[in-house]
Amino acid sequence: MDKICVGAIAGSFGVRGEVRLKSFCAEPAAIADYGPLTTEDGRSFGVTLTRPVAGGLGARLTGVTTKEAADALKGTQLFVGRDRLPALGDDEFYHSDLIGLEVRDTGGQLLGRVSGVHNHGADDILEVQGKGESLLFPFTRIVVPTVDLTVGRIVVDPPEVSE
Predict the structure, then answer these.
(1) CATH numbers and ranges of domains, the chain
(2) Comparing C-alpha atoms, which of 44, 7, 46 is closest to residue 25?
(3) Which of 37, 58, 89, 156 is most buried, by the most CB atoms less than 10 A from its CB?
(4) What is the pLDDT of residues 46-64, one digit of tens each?
């Protein structure tokens, strides 16, 4: 089953086992709607959101009742089966669908493969690992006119760089 990372535990919150949860969902609170979330090592947690907190959401995870147990989970990524996520509209993609895709420019020259997708508050940024270098492209329709998941290719039209 394909799994999608929907969040991560950023640490404990309070002294009764609550965690600070970073949600990677478009609507952050939706992370609690997908049923039990799993970790890379197969543990499963039910999620109950408690309150908004600085840098994320306060949450209770099933079986986590102490600050020490919550602290031990810091950095743990949380996944959900792709089949439990909503269908995406046209021109919408899960980041995991983009990782590994071949990237070519509009002339057909191979630039590399997508190695990461980052978001620092504005548009997503595609990180492309090329021949010994990383290239960054804004993930906008102007710069990335084509994403073809069927053939595993992205076409980019890099902006002109003035010297």
Answers:
(1) 3-84 (2.40.30.60), 95-156 (2.30.30.240)
(2) 7
(3) 37
(4) 999 999 888 889 999 999 9
